[in-house]
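Help! Submission page says 'invalid entity' but I think these are all valid:
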Amino acid sequence: MSTQPIQAQPLGDPRKPSRANILRRYTADRIVSGLAVLATVIVLAPLAAILFYLVYKGASSLNLAFFTHVPAPVGEEGGGMANAIVGSSLVLLLASLMGIPVGIAAGVYLSEFGRGKFLGNAVRFTADVLNGVPSIVMGITIYSLVVKPQRHYSALAGGIALAIMMIPTVTRTTEEMLATVPLAIREAALGLGVPKWRTAVSVSLRTASPGIITGCMLAFARVAGETAPLLFTAFGNQFWSFNLNEPIAALPLQIFVYAISPYDEWHRLAWAGALVLIVLIMVSVTLVRVFANRGVLKGGS
Amino acid sequence: MGVGIQVEDLNAWYGSTHTLQDINLHIPANHATALIGPSGCGKSTFVRCLNRMHETNPIARATGVVKMGEIDIYREASPVEIRRRVGMVFQRPNPFPTMSIYDNVISGLKLNGFRNRRILDETVERSLKQAALWEEVKDDLKKKSGASLSGGQQQRMCIARALAVDPEVLLMDEPASALDPVSTSKIEDLIFQLKTQYTIVIVTHNMQQAARVAENTGFFLNGKLVEFDSTHKIFTNPRDKRTEDYITGRFG
């Protein structure tokens, strides 16, 4: 180690940057910051445009009846999408209850137990391929596996289709988030005589939970707007239904039906439905974030 | 109370690297034993073999006999049992970031399914007092995250966490190397008090530290235990030329 004292540089020292150099650095700094801001705007613009357009087209059709009534028969004025809102919520709840636990469990396996093993690599590969399966294919598959044997469309079949679509996203984010948990923290738990499975669940998973919750929300938001997998599974329903074994209405399906109809009134309702769908997704994602952040101790690193 | 550790013909590998070669030594109960040697000489691998942490690395393996008291830890006990009886403090403080100070200290019991509140409360207070941290944190036990403490406090919290499961042996892998001098001296004071109740094995790069806290010292070089003797003997009159070169600073 050097023990020489640090001496102040005299003015005019050749190591001091020149005026031109400072100007160049300043300009480069501004250009890069400007590009970053521009990129942010480009990312936000489509979202803002979509929201604005939905409000412009759909807000006028929103009224109390929209949230309390079932769709009106052809030729009648009014009606709403209450059954579709409830139906979507039910199907998504079902999908989350099935898809998130399976996805997280698979992610824990990949990260904590399956590293370098054949089964681990196979699961990882399958998840990546599953992620690329078109949603319409998922719909047809569940149709032949669940709907046909049962001989009827059902909310359950819709939930299964969406759950399978959620699994790859949840699995891969869980795995990636667990990989960011430092080895030192796992060793701390193992060193206390905590069994490996308990370390994985109570220490690694808990430490990685904010990122995993984000992954679950991404998966949720993605399938919340899916129409194709529901066409042959949940099917849609013009009336109230709370029976998971019967066809059920869902917002994307209702929007689809209204949007391809020849009636102007139904077109307006489709816009309103789209607006409600997006707002509901944003609200549920925000609520989960708020609740997930509760009870987190302050002052952590 | 602590127990003695008898090590016979211990060999360890990482992949094909033979990191520990034929280690034989006896670590006496209720004393502090220091392990010194240049980086990469196998000291850390050695202590990790004493609580079977070595084998958590998939490419690592070990052969030989390690007896804690009467138990052969590789043949007569599971790694989980051994790690409950042999506490470990790591080089860098490693608090659980999502847990409060209270939960950090008690994690060894809680994660093993222990739920009696009164005993948990008592254990937290006793362990933090043993680790000389109680006075500094007693008002924030459940309010603050363990990760919000300073480095020195975190390390003492990690010592409290290791003590809370009531181990017989405490392994310390360079416990003060990431800390400032004030925190270091606090940790050394702590080792002084703890060695009356626990068997302590401390890996250190700091030879003054070994001289201050340990009754016995072992010198490791290239995976071999070159010399093991009383600390006084090692630092004043070593038998081996290599030990002498190392402690006088001629290499390493």
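Support: the input was valid. A stray whitespace character was the problem, and the output above is from the cleaned input. The domain at 84-250 of chain A is CATH 1.10.3720.10 (MetI-like fold).
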